[in-house]
Structures are given as C-alpha cells and as structure tokens.
User: Which sequence fits this backbone?
C-alpha cells in the first residue's frame, strides 16, 4: 500500500516516514524543502534500511503532482506540508493563505482526479484560540488568533465540506499539541531555520552553547509557577498517531478529528528543570515580558484518540529531553553542511 506524505522531509514528516516504513508501507514523499532538508530523507533511509521515492516539488505544481499520482498507485495521503511560524504569518499573511490554502486545494483536486479519497491532515491546537477550559476536548469552541492559525481553521472547514460532498472521502484531522523530542537514533530531529521560535529547540540550543539564555515569556499566568503550561508530546508518539489514524481511515468515511497530546501540561520552568536534570547541562534563563498572543494554559483531553484510535502517547518528559539532547549534541548545526547521497533517483 502506497502512502504519499507531503512535507515528508520536515520534522514531523521524517518521523512519520520512519513509522510508516517500519510498519511496511510504501512511502512517497513530496516536499519543496522550503523549511526542511533532503538530508533527512537520507537519514530516514539509514534508520529504516528502506528506500523510498522522494520528489523535491511544490504542491502548487499541479502537473508535477499529477505525475506523481500517475507514477505511483497512491492509496492515501498524509498532508503535513505548509508554513507554520506564527510571527511570520502575521508579517506575511498573503504568503500563508496562498501557500497553505492553495496547496491543499490543489492536493485534494489531484487526489479526486486520481480516485484517492483517504487523507490525514495536520492541524494544530492553535485552532482552539483561547481555550474556554482545560483539558481541551475536540468539540470545544474554535477561533484562531493569527493568520497561521486561521489557515488551519479554514482548511479544517474546507475538508469538512469536501467530506460532506461525497461519502467516499475519509479524512482525519489531527490537532497537534506541542511536538518535541527526536528519534532515539539521534539521526533526525527538529531543525529550525535561524533562532528557534519554540521553547524546546531554544532550550537545547542554549544547552549546547549556541544561545546565551532562555527568555521566559512571562511569569504571571495563572499556572503552577506563573509560566505558560503546554502539552508537550514526543514526536515519535505523534508520528505513531498518524499511523493509527491512517489505518483507521482506510476503513471508514467522513471527517474524524483527534487531539494528539499527552493530556498533561508542563510549565516553561518545569521544562527547563527537566532538561537540566536529564542532560546535566545548565540552562540559564531570565524572565521577560509575555509574548503577544500567548495563552497561559493549554493541554489536551486525549480520550477520543485513546478510545477510537487505540493510540496513547507513552514517552515521558525525560525521554523528550533526552532525545532532544542526543539529536542536538550529534547535530549541533542540524542538517547543515552534510552532503546528500543520492540513493534515490526518480
Ligand atoms: C506555538 C504557536 C502555535 C503553534 C505551535 C507549534 C505561538 C503563539 N503559538 O505554540 O500556534 O501551533 O507553536 O509550532 O507562537 N516560551 C518561552 N520562551 C521561548 C519560547 C517559548 O518562554 O523562547 C514559552 C511560551 O510562552 C509558551 C511555551 O514556552 O508558554 C511554549 O511555547 P512554544 O514552543 O512557542 O509553543 P506554543 O506557543 O504553545
């Protein structure tokens, strides 16, 4: 069975490729490498000892995508490709709407033309906006606070309309909480461009000496120690969630929405302390102003994914820190500077 993974060279994509290849699926990756590296494709092959097709291609290239569907007999798609930086989306809304919305429309149109109706879509807890209550359940009210979040919200609505138009469509919408960690091999992990926006890569770059200290955005939230609380989930657990959603999706139709988190929140200071104690590295920090648009408390109710997908996040905060650190230590500059071995030619 062949699965197309868009954005398969990225952080979540590369880990999802590993899980699918290890489960015996044929994998086809399309990625324009705008925020990812082809090195990750080589690394996935190294981890799994399995090769797979990779196309450096933009999803807006309809003809190119059509050729991929013609060449490979695709059974289902895991759609992860898209722009994802909140601050950037505020500065470049047109680019976010154009890229995220248009690419998904082109993808769905090409899928339809090729009679492929099974889709797993990458959404985000950001669609809950300012949550009314925690833990957050899937049918909570929605409302994004920035263009990036609005693209996810709009795409969720577009996919629901699509599924209503024809019962052959089976679509899983996965709302990620805060993915962190890396594959236990230390070969693939998060590789942010420039200075990281997200907490965990920032902490690990401070620990490895690339950045001086963590700026903790506010300590006056109504949380355990005043700093923001999030539901950090190990990226390998998240990748396994895609596999479970895909397997379920192959047998059913309609839209199914799942939170992928652990159901437990940790504060910024708890994350820093956990990282220090697991790695033995000191992580200096200072308290600064709140980051505009941030919320205090955000963690998932995971009962739906647990029950319907039989999926549970099992990796602890210690493993998240350990695996992040192994990846960071082995790859202080991410994938930069590594030569690509063209094992796979298309
Ligand atoms: C952010 C995005 C969210 C996106 C998610 C995944 C914002 C406002 N939200 O979520 O839309 O889906 O990433 O990419 O950007 N923190 C610090 N110092 C730092 C970085 C973060 O104190 O240098 C704090 C934040 O205030 C927050 C927590 O750490 O309390 C987690 O932040 P982050 O990793 O950026 O994730 P989110 O803000 O939850």
Assistant:
């Amino acid at each position: 069975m062949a699965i197309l993974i868009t954005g398969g060279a990225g952080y979540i994509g590369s880990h999802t490729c590993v899980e699918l290849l290890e489960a015996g699926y044929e994998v086809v990756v399309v990625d324009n490498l705008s925020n990812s590296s082809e090195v990750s494709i080589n690394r996935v092959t190294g981890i799994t000892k399995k090769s797979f097709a990779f196309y450096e291609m933009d999803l807006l290239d309809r003809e190119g995508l059509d050729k991929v569907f013609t060449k490979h007999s695709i059974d289902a798609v895991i759609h992860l490709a898209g722009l994802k930086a909140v601050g950037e989306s505020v500065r470049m809304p047109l680019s976010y709407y154009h890229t995220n919305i248009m690419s998904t429309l082109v993808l769905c149109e090409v899928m339809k033309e090729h009679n492929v109706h099974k889709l797993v879509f990458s959404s985000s807890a950001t669609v809950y906006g300012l949550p009314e209550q925690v833990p957050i359940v899937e049918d909570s009210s929605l409302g994004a606070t920035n263009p990036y979040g609005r693209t996810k919200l709009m795409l969720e609505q577009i996919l629901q309309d699509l599924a209503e138009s024809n019962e052959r469509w089976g679509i899983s919408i996965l709302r990620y909480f805060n993915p962190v960690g890396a594959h236990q091999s230390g070969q693939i992990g998060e590789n942010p461009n420039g200075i990281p926006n997200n907490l965990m890569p920032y902490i690990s770059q401070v620990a490895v000496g690339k950045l001086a200290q963590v700026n903790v955005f506010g300590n006056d939230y109504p949380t355990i120690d005043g700093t923001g609380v999030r539901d950090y989930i190990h990226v390998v657990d998240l990748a396994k969630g895609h596999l479970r959603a895909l397997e379920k999706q192959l047998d059913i139709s309609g839209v199914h929405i799942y939170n992928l988190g652990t159901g437990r929140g940790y504060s910024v200071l708890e994350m820093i302390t956990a990282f220090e104690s697991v790695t033995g590295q000191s992580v200096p920090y200072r308290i600064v102003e709140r980051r505009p648009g941030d919320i205090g408390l955000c963690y998932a109710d995971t009962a739906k994914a647990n029950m319907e997908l039989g999926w549970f996040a099992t990796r602890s905060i210690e493993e998240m820190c350990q695996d992040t650190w192994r990846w960071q230590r082995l790859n202080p500059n991410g994938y930069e500077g590594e030569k690509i071995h063209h094992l796979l030619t298309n």
